[in-house]
Design a protein that fits this description.
- By secondary structure, the chain is of the alpha/beta class.
- 44% of the residues lie in helices and 10% in strands.
- It has 20 helices and seven strands.
- α10 crosses α11 and α19 runs antiparallel to α20.
- The longest helix is centred in the first third of the chain and has 18 residues.
- The radius of gyration is 22 Å and the shape is globular.
């Protein structure tokens, strides 16, 4: 879902590691049959994708003679263009961005080339510098039931709790907060604490003549980003997992064994909507992009923000007004959620990311396979991670420049490494988009106040089951 803003990239082209250059012999030789070819791709305009376009694509062209035309566009356009191309088998794109939550739909429709099999069948294309074993476990999301790989991860990050360290550390704010609530001001561990902090800083802004609110909120009243914020970020913090759909019978209603309209889900949605009064006025028009922009502009004291934005918000003073003031923490949780995540029975939030895959409709599959391996090398990862806090290789955490950036962004990489296992990607639903679209209108009506949270979730659960029945999942 991803989202977001353009990261700073100036000068990074000169920083690519020597290891890539030393491997140039392979890339030149393997690419000889395809020199002069142009491969085309599409992705969302995000910090990781812009690094690919501005830094990695020129490097690849220099070493191979294969030109990369990489279109970075809006999230909506990216999906629309890629899916229409693959459905029509027109072959416009030779590689496409595959978000973690849509891979299962693509696999069910046989859209993608089996990378594992392709490299095995054409060993001359297989680079010794590309190994799926070097990736983090996030790569497993892009494998089929047999373990074959269909996408090379290019970004992976968690949606984290960002907070303003300068505000939380202000002695006057600390004194006033403790006087009002009876405990020390610190990043929230519980939903009650988060709500009280939101309330406090919203009033603090009013009292001090500041355009400051207590929390960001990704609550667009007509865009799927708000649906995702609830079901993939806030819902799990209450213990609502996998959208409340029970795979044993594919039920969503409590009456049939699901939990989409459970008391817990209704409490979670009521809480989330209740935060609107502490969010900036742009919240109901905010997607992932606007949430990051609001936080970077200093308009909120805290919020859940996609981790790919952490670097530029915390360290790029050409785009952010809160450089040096950003702290990171795990999201607030209901009782029992952390224990459930640690035991593997639940999760505390969203582990997001995506990969590049090759459509069956591509007319330049071999050249595209070389490109995917190029961006999957271990040697290109550190500069990429510094430009946009996404990590796909285990060794990237130990790189000195990544560790130096970690200190600038309050230990985000360390949090990702140590606590990433507590987060999870979207459930493996081939019907992902269909159920989202069937339920989203009722969700938007809850945001606008046309439906109560309880009524909205009742209607959503019923709509989900109707759609699952129409698709043949429910009997």
């Amino acid at each position: 879902m991803q989202r977001r803003s353009i990261a700073w990239l100036a000068g990074l082209g000169s920083l690519l590691l020597a290891g890539t250059a030393s491997a140039a012999g392979f890339w030149t030789d393997a690419a000889k049959p395809y020199a002069g070819t142009t491969i085309r791709g599409v992705s969302e305009s995000t910090p990781p994708s812009n690094f690919v376009k501005d830094v990695l694509a020129p490097q690849f062209e220099e070493q191979t003679g294969i030109k990369v035309e990489f279109e970075t566009t809006s999230w909506d356009q990216m999906y629309d263009k890629a899916i229409k191309d693959m459905e029509a088998n027109t072959g416009i794109y030779d590689f496409v961005y595959i978000e973690q939550d849509i891979i299962y739909s693509y696999l069910s429709r046989d859209f993608l080339v089996d990378i594992t099999k392709s490299l095995k069948d054409t060993p001359a294309l297989a680079s010794a510098d590309f190994s799926p074993d070097k990736f983090t476990s996030f790569i497993d999301y892009f494998k089929d039931a047999n373990g074959d790989l269909y996408g090379v991860p290019m970004e992976a990050f968690v949606k984290i709790y960002l907070y303003r360290k300068d505000l939380f550390g202000d002695p006057k704010a600390q004194e006033a907060f403790k006087a009002k609530y009876g405990y020390d001001l610190a990043p929230a561990k519980t939903h009650k604490e988060y709500q009280e902090i939101a309330e406090f800083f919203t009033q603090w802004g009013k009292d001090n003549g500041q355009e400051l609110w207590g929390t960001t909120l990704q609550a667009h009243s007509g865009h799927p980003s708000s649906w995702y914020e609830f079901f993939e970020s806030w819902g799990p913090t209450f213990g609502v997992y996998n959208w409340g759909i029970n795979p044993d019978g594919w039920s969503a209603t409590v009456a049939h064994g699901g939990s989409m309209n459970s008391d817990t889900a209704k409490a979670a949605l009521t809480y989330w909507l209740g935060l609107l009064k502490y969010a900036p006025p742009e919240a109901t028009a905010s997607t992932w992009d606007e949430v990051a922009a609001s936080f970077a502009a200093g308009r909120a004291a805290q919020g859940l923000v996609y981790g790919e934005n952490a670097a530029w918000i915390a360290a790029d003073d050409t785009k952010s007004g809160v450089v040096g003031k950003v702290g990171v923490a795990l999201p607030p949780l209901a009782e029992g959620v952390q224990a459930a995540a640690e035991s593997g029975k639940g999760y505390i939030g969203y582990y997001d990311g995506g990969a590049f895959g090759v459509p069956h409709s591509s007319k330049n599959k071999e050249a595209a396979l070389l490109w995917l391996q190029f961006i999957g090398q271990e040697s290109v990862q550190p500069d990429w991670a510094v430009a946009a806090p996404r990590i796909t290789h285990t060794a990237t955490y130990d790189d000195p420049k990544v560790q130096a950036m970690d200190a600038k962004i309050d230990g985000y990489y360390t949090l990702l490494r140590d606590s990433g296992k507590l987060f999870a990607g979207a459930p493996a639903y081939p019907f992902h988009a269909q159920v989202r679209e069937a339920t989203a209108p009722f969700f938007y009506q809850a945001i606008t106040g046309e439906l109560t949270p309880s009524d909205a979730l009742d209607k959503m659960a019923e709509a989900a089951e109707t759609e699952l029945t129409n698709l043949g999942y429910r009997k």
